[in-house]
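If you are new to this repository, start here. Below is one unmodified record pulled from the training split, so you can see the exact layout before writing a loader.
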Amino acid sequence: MSAFRARIGFALLSNPARPLPSTRVSVLNMLPHLREAGYETYIIHEPNEPTETPDLSGLADRVQALGLDIVYFQKIHGAGVRRQIAALRSAGVRTVYGVCDRVDNDLVRATDATVIVTDFLKHQHAPELWERIHVVHDGIERPELTHSFANEPLPNGRLRATLVTSSALDAVPVLESAARHRLEITMVGDYPQRATLFELRRRARAAMSASSLIPLLSRGFRAVRWHPQGVYDELRQADIGIIPVDTQPDPLPSGEVSWWQVKSENRLTLMMGLGLPVIASPVPSYLGVVEQGVNGYIARTPHDWLRAIDELRDPLRRHQVGASARASVLERFSKIEQASRLVRVLNRLLIRSPALA
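And here is the target side for that same chain:
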């Protein structure tokens, strides 16, 4: 007789050998904890290239052959996904929809449970569906790493500020002038291995956005390719973390809210978990994490940015805010806590009928 409580299969957005951050954080990081909780885990769909609308033909048959109890669909949707969900539920297999940046009431209704990354995104869905939606945050990946605050000061009171992005920004939102703010800004993102000014110019020219490159070519900016270890090296060398976000309207397909409003806390808690003081734009998920001036700063206006930057020129202040930041997020956003939340959702499914109204 198996020692496992149940068998769960994952249909993924991206391949585990080259995972997108959402796949790594929401699924791959959770697998060891699920096994400890008594779940036998299977990857039942791993695309060669990331796609949100995959061809899942035959998936329901494979699931039944494996004897799986639950199938988790990670950030994938579309007609093919819905057909497999319907077939699985008809066969008595529970289904879970994992999502981080979409509002899809129909898919929430189609599955037995939805796992979502923020309370804000949950409450963009129809109110009658809220009880079916469960918040599991992005867990902090390297809690053992801390910021030493032993960096040598830069001349003229300048601060080293690091920004982490999943794209290749050619301008910094909000902070259009590093010189004005007396900052040395490092942007860690999807840049060439050595992001020289020549390469950045070429990329901008190809994108027909050369004018937006002007801020990046100004003194005080540096672009670095994201690397799973390198990102921590850059953050640990910084004085402050910054998350400036373009808050112009940029609606989701649902049309209710903008893309920037449904961002998870991941970048924020990444920096705070290291003990780095952070200044961030007012992304809704950040508002319940940052206690203004205590463990970080929310900056809504250019004046807010300048004031927070000036406060953090004091090394003692940076240390105080950074220490408070780390203490406030390490347990709340730990992988163990998020895995516990996910396990509670799965456990409930095992004792409920899959035929929900």
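Two things worth knowing about this chain: The two ends are 33 Å apart (CA to CA). The domain at 155-329 is CATH 3.40.50.2000 (Rossmann fold).
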